[in-house]
Sequence to fold (140 residues):
Amino acid sequence: MKTLQFEAVKVALKQDKTGYILTLCLHPDEIPEDLMRDFVGSRYGVVMVRINESEEPLDREQEFGNGKAVRLAGILCKEPDFWEFLYDDLQIMQKSEKEASDWLRNYLNIQSRSELKTNTEAQQLLEKLNKDYLRWKNAS
Fold:
């Protein structure tokens, strides 16, 4: 089996009724000829790894360090599935990012997500909440 290998830059991510649409930009010298010849609608199994300035795989733990919890809280509050999780558990009355953000700050007893950088108690609560959410999501 021949694999296609190339470097690309993420330039857009949007969503429609069928899923997410990822747009990548490839340098003309990088695009594999086989990819150019394939028909629009061709399916691919995709493996991607983000690279750093040294052309090595990026360690996301290193990238976000103490900000991991801050980032996770932001990601969760933007996810419609997380809104559904909270709504199903009667934690929020409206499925929205604002409602989820307000609820999460109250649940974690913080004024701002930036407090998650140093508040270990809130970090632990967020980690437990995320595990509960992922368990709920996998069961759905």
